[in-house]
Amino acid sequence: MALGDLEPADGSAHTRIWVSADGRRWDALKPNALDSRAVVVGMAATADGLVAMTLQSGTVICEDAGPHDLSLLDCWTKTGPLQSWTSSDGTAWTAHPGPAITLPEMEGQGEATPTLVGATSDHLIALTLAGQPLAVTRDGIAWGSVPRDAFPADWRAERTVASPAGLVAVGNAGGKTVAVSSADGRTWASHAFRTIATPIEDLVSGSDGLIMTGLDYPASGPPTWVWWSSLDGRYWRALPGYPPLSAMSGSAAQECRNTCPDGSLGGNGERMIAYRGWRTQVGWTSFDGRSWLPLRFEGRPETSSGWLDDHCTNDLVVTAIGVSCTDSDGATWFGTAQT
To answer: What's the pLDDT tens digit per position in 268-294?
Structure first.
C-alpha cells in the first residue's frame, strides 16, 4: 500500500491510495474504496491483512487556495469520529467503529493528529496522539483503551514505536527522560535512564533494537546531540560519536558546531538505516543499532558542501520495501532492502 496527498472533490477531500502486489506496478484505488471524505492518518499490518485509521476531511482553511494547495493536509480541517478499516488484500475494505477517543480540534497539520504504530511480532498495534498510546488492537476491529495511570506521574510522551517485545515509548516525567515498554499495550513498565531532561528528537527501531536521538542542553554552551541504544526498550546505553556515523566537523558543520551526527538515521521496525550523502556517499544497515553492515550504491543523488544542503540526507524514508529520498532537484531515489 502507498498513501499519497489529498484529492479534492465536491467540497471535500480524500487520501489517494495505491496498491501493489510486487512493489513495481501500482494501481490507484477508487475514491470511494474507503470513504469519499476519508483522510487516512495511519496504516499497519495485521495477522491477515491491513488496518487503516481515518478521519473525515472538513473545510478548506487556506486563504486563496489553489489546486495544488487543496492537496495538502494542512489546508483542511479534520473531524471525527475515528473510523477503522480492515482489508485482506488492500483493495476491498470493511468499515468498523474506531476506538472511543475524544479528539482535539484539528484545523491544520500543526495540531497533533492521531496515527497508528505497529505492528510487533504478534501484531500489536497502537493508536497514538502526540506520541501517547491511547488504544491498542491486534486485528483493527476490537480496540482496548490504554489506561492513563499506566504511565509515570507527570508523564509526557514524545515518541512511540514497535519493538520485537511489544511497544516502547519515550518521554519526560519529573524532569527526567523516561522510557516505558509494554508487551500488551495495557500494562507499562518505566525505565529512567537519565537524571536530566533531554528533548527527544526521534526514536527508531529495528527487529532487534532501538536508538533514541535527542538534544542535551548544558547549563552553558551549545546543545549536544546524544544517541542512546537499547536492545529491549528497558536498558539503554549512550553511543558516543553516533556510530556508524561520525560527528560534524570543520566548515561543513555549518550551524551544527561540531555537535551533530554527519548523516541521518531512519528505521521501519525491521531494520535501521544510517546514511550520509554529502561529501562521500556512505550508508549502513542494522537490525539492532549496534552491529552495522555497509550499503552498496549505484549512482548518487547529489553532491553538496554540507549536511544542511543535502536534501537526500535529510529526506531519508525507510519502508518495508526499501529506502527512498528526494534530492534538491526533486528527483526521487530508491534503494532495495536486502538481508
So the answer is: 888 999 999 888 889 999 999 999 999
Q: Single out the residue of 15, 67, 64 nearest to residue 36, CA to CA.
A: 15
Angle formed at CA 113 by CA 108 and CA 114, multiple of 5 degrees: 160
Separation between Cα atoms, residue 270 and residue 273, nearest integer Å: 10
Q: Is 311 helix (H, G, I), strand (E, B) or coil?
A: helix
Rounded Cα–Cα distance for residues 98 and 192 (Å): 33
Backbone angles phi, psi at 42, to 5 degrees: -175, 150
Residue 108 has pLDDT above 70, yes or no: no
Return the SS3 of 212: strand
Q: Which pTM was predicted?
A: 0.87
User: SS3 of 202, please?
Assistant: strand
- The per-residue pLDDT for range 166-176, each reduced to its tens digit, is 899 999 888 78
Judge contact between 236 and 248, C-beta under 8 A. no
Name residues whose C-beta falls within 8 Å of residue 322's C-beta, 6 or more positions apart in sequence: 23, 334, 335, 336, 337
Q: Are strands 176-182 and 209-216 parallel, antiparallel or unpaired?
A: unpaired
